[in-house]
Design goal:
- With about 425 residues, the chain is of the alpha/beta class.
- The protein contains 14 helices and 18 strands.
- It has a 5-stranded parallel β-sheet with strand order 4-3-2-5-6, with helices on one face. A 5-stranded parallel β-sheet has the order 16-15-14-17-18.
- Strand 2, helix 2 and strand 3 form a beta-alpha-beta unit.
- It is globular and about 60 Å long.
Length: about 425
C-alpha cells in the first residue's frame, strides 16, 4: 500500500513504517521560535532542566513579531532570546531580517525535512515539501533540546487543482476559495497535499502562500511534492545540494479528494471576523477601507510586491486610505529596491516599514482605530488581530489590496490590471 507525502516523510524521519493514525518519534531537522513565543520556550527549557540544544546550527530564534520593539516589556523579551541564543550557539535573526517563515524558506527548509516552530505558520515550509508544523512553546522546547519529537501521523486530504488562473486571480484566491469551501476547521489535524497541473506550474512564492494558509483550515501541515521548480528554487538559493525528490506513491490512500478548476475562480476575499467567511471581491465592491497592508509571511514576497508595483506605478493612493508595505525579508527588501518597486511605493504614498510581521500581529506599525477597516494580504482576520477588537479585517490577494488602495474601497483588481 502506497504512502502520502506526510507518511513518507515521517517514515523516513522515524525509521518506521508510518501510517495515518500511528504515533511516531521523528527526528527534528530545524526548530524555531520567535519573540512572541521564544521567551516561554526558554523558560520551559529551564523549568524542565533541559537547558541544552541538540542542533544549535539549525535552531533559530527570530526577532520579527515586534521588531523593532515598541515597548520595554517586549525589549526585555528580546534580551532573553539574544542572551540564550548567545549562550547556546543558537542562530539569531535580528530585527529587520524579516519574518521567520520567509527566512526559513530562504535559508533552511529542504524537501523531506521535519521542521517545528513555536508559530502556527511554520507550515509555510510545506511549499518546499518539508513536514513543517507549529507547536506550543513547551513542545518546541522539548524538540529543540532532544532533537526529536512525537507526532500522530495525519490523514491526508488530496487537493487536485487543474486549469490556468484567469487574469487578476492568484494563489491567494485559490486558498481562500478552498478554506471557504471546507471551513476553518474543515481539515483539522489533516495533511493538505496540493497537486495537479496548476500546482506543478506554480512558482515557489505561490506554493508558499498555499502552504502558509493550510493551518487556517485547521491542517497540521500543507505539502507540495518537490519537483524541478523546487530544485530551481534551491539552486537559486545556493542550496541545490539540499534538493531531495519527494512524491506521494500512486496508490497512496487519501481520506478525502478535493478537485478545483482554477480556470473558473475569481478574485476572493475573507470578510470579518473569520477566514472562512469568504466571498467574491466583486460582491463587496465599493466597501470603504481606511488601510491597506501589503506584506506578511503569506504575501510579502517579491512576486507579491511586483504585482502591487505594476498597479501603483505612476499613480497616487486615495487620500482617505493609508498604505503600509512590509517586505517579508531583508533580501526581498533589497530585491524590491533594485527593481524600483520601493520607489514606486513611496511615490504612490505608501509607508515602508522594516521587514518583519509589521501590522499583521497588531502590536505596532498599523494598529487600526475604532470602526476602521483594513484590506490585508496576511492570513488572519479574527476580531482584534490587528490590535483593535472594534476594527474590521478583510483578507485578499496583493492585486486586490493594490486596486483597493487606489479607490479607498474594495475593488476587483481586474478593473485596474
Amino acid at each position: 500500500m502506497g504512502k502520502t507525502l506526510a507518511e513518507k516523510i515521517l517514515s523516513e524521519k522515524s525509521n518506521s513504517d508510518a501510517r495515518a493514525g500511528d504515533i511516531v518519534i521523528a527526528r527534528v531537522d530545524v526548530a524555531l521560535a520567535q519573540d512572541g513565543t521564544g521567551p516561554l520556550t526558554v523558560q520551559q527549557l529551564r523549568t524542565m532542566g533541559l537547558e541544552r540544544v541538540a542542533n544549535p546550527k539549525r535552531t533559530v530564534f527570530f526577532l520579527d513579531h515586534a521588531a523593532p520593539s515598541p515597548r520595554w516589556e517586549l525589549s526585555n523579551d528580546h534580551i532573553i532570546l539574544r542572551s540564550f541564543a548567545k549562550q547556546m550557539g543558537i542562530q539569531l535573526s535580528e530585527i529587520g531580517e524579516g519574518v521567520c517563515h520567509q527566512i526559513i524558506a530562504e535559508s533552511y527548509a529542504s524537501p523531506g525535512e521535519v521542521i517545528i516552530g513555536a508559530d502556527s505558520h511554520t507550515v509555510t515550509a510545506g511549499g518546499l515539501c518539508a513536514f513543517a508544523t507549529g507547536m506550543g512553546s513547551t513542545d518546541v522546547a522539548v524538540g529543540l533540546a532532544l532533537g526529536k519529537t512525537w507526532f500522530r501521523v495525519p490523514e491526508t486530504f488530496k487537493v487536485v487543482v487543474s486549469g490556468a488562473f484567469q487574469k487578476g486571480v492568484y494563489p491567494k484566491d485559490l486558498i481562500l476559495h478552498l478554506i471557504g469551501m471546507i471551513g476553518a476547521d474543515g481539515a483539522t489535524y489533516k495533511s493538505l497535499e496540493f497537486c495537479g497541473e496548476t500546482i506543478e506550474g506554480m512558482s515557489m512564492s505561490g506554493r508558499f502562500t498555499l502552504a502558509n494558509m493550510a493551518v487556517e483550515a485547521g491542517a497540521k501541515v500543507g505539502l507540495i511534492a518537490s519537483d524541478e521548480v523546487t530544485r530551481a528554487y534551491l539552486e537559486w538559493r545556493g542550496r541545490g545540494d539540499a534538493y531531495h525528490p519527494m512524491r506521494p506513491d500512486p496508490d497512496a490512500i487519501y481520506e478525502h479528494v478535493i478537485t478545483i478548476d482554477a480556470s473558473i475562480l475569481e478574485p476572493a476575499i475573507a470578510k470579518p471576523h473569520t477566514v472562512d467567511n469568504t466571498s467574491l471581491v466583486k460582491d463587496l465592491q465599493g466597501m470603504k477601507v481606511e488601510q491597506v497592508f501589503l506584506g506578511s509571511c503569506t504575501n510579502g514576497r517579491l512576486e507579491d510586491l511586483a504585482v502591487a508595483a505594476e498597479i501603483w506605478k505612476g499613480k497616487k493612493r486615495h487620500l482617505e486610505t493609508r498604505v503600509i508595505v512590509a517586505p517579508a525579508s531583508k533580501e526581498v527588501f533589497l530585491q524590491a529596491l533594485a527593481a524600483g518597486y520601493i520607489a514606486t511605493f513611496v511615490e504612490f504614498g505608501a509607508v515602508i516599514v522594516p521587514p518583519g510581521c509589521a501590522a499583521c500581529v497588531g502590536v505596532h506599525q498599523g494598529v487600526l482605530g475604532d470602526g476602521e477597516s483594513c484590506l490585508s494580504t496576511s492570513n488572519r482576520n479574527f476580531q482584534g488581530r490587528m490590535g483593535n477588537p472594534a476594527s474590521f479585517i478583510y483578507l485578499a490577494s496583493p492585486a486586490t489590496a493594490a486596486a483597493s488602495a487606489l479607490r479607498s474601497e474594495i475593488t476587483d483588481p481586474r478593473e485596474v490590471l
